[in-house]
Amino acid sequence: MADKNTTITLSDLPEDIVGEILARVGSSSRRQLRHVMEASKALAKAANDKGVYKALNLRPLVFHPLATRYRYKDLMEKTLTNGNIEAHYIKGILEYFHKNNTITGLQHLKLAARGSYSESMYLYGIILLSRGEMEEGKAYLDQLGWQHSKTRGNRCWRNIKKSLHGVLRLPAYRKTIRVMKPTIMYNLNDLENRCHHCYYYKQIVKFVFII
């Protein structure tokens, strides 16, 4: 039995427990994780763990994806390798919108969407709708629960606009808009007033013309 006066530090704990603790710290704040790593070489070594990279909070980079083109390359490589959904979302935006590598971009966005990352569920769904892949696109948007409340979808849209700010965009998908335009006029100029008849159509219009 350990002496009651013995001090047990984080680095004294079993490696798997330390990894779990550091993953939780990293999921809250990358900056806080960096502070922990600077406190001990042993902790810095323990932080080089796949669970830490998978859970690492990349939120600041989500809103500035272009920053990862020249910086954070090692970080992005490690987080992508270990299945970090925010890393896949960032990579998807860069590939699809900036590099015009649409297939690669969609693959990364789909991985993030399947990981239940809300912004990627919205963006992947709306891209599919805009490309004419209606059923799958609707299925992803429906997972955001817009039929009951549009709050989650609206929040996703605001965040997506921040992420896409300054990123080159692809040509508008105007053919899809013409095909999907409701036969009955549902206040089509009012993009915030959306019912179940015109929701998908208005989401595409916002995506194509307002980014």
Helix-strand blueprint:
Blueprint: H1 15-28, H2 30-39, H3 41-46, H4 50-55, H5 59-62, H6 73-81, H7 85-98, H8 102-114, H9 118-130, H10 134-142, H11 151-164, H12 174-180, H13 199-210
InterPro entries: At1g67623-like, At2g35280_TPR_dom
Organism: Thlaspi arvense (Field penny-cress)
Protein name: At2g35280-like TPR domain-containing protein
Offer a concise description of the structure.
The chain is mostly helical.
Please tell me about this protein's structure.
The structure is a single chain. The protein has 211 residues and is an all-alpha fold. It has 2 domains: 9-57, no CATH class; 59-167. The protein has 13 helices and no strands. It has helices at residues 15-28, 30-39, 41-46, 50-55, 59-62, 73-81, 85-98, 102-114, 118-130, 134-142, 151-164, 174-180, 199-210. Helix 7 (85-98) runs antiparallel to helix 8 (102-114), helix 8 (102-114) packs across helix 9 (118-130) and helix 9 runs antiparallel to helix 10 (134-142).
Main pleated sheet: none
What distance separates the N and C termini?
A: 63 Å
* Total domains: 2
**Helix vs. strand class:** mainly alpha
- What pattern of helices and strands is seen along the backbone? HHHHHHHHHHHHH
**Per DSSP, what share of the residues sits in E-state strands of 2 or more residues?**
under 5%
The averaged pLDDT comes out at 80
- Rounded Rg: 21 Å
| Principal-axes shape call | elongated
Count of individual helical segments: 13
Helix content: 55-70%
pLDDT under 50 segments (min length 5)? 183-188
DSSP strand count? 0
Pfam family, one: TPR_27
Domain At2g35280-like TPR: 74-163
Protein name: At2g35280-like TPR domain-containing protein
InterPro entries: At1g67623-like, At2g35280_TPR_dom
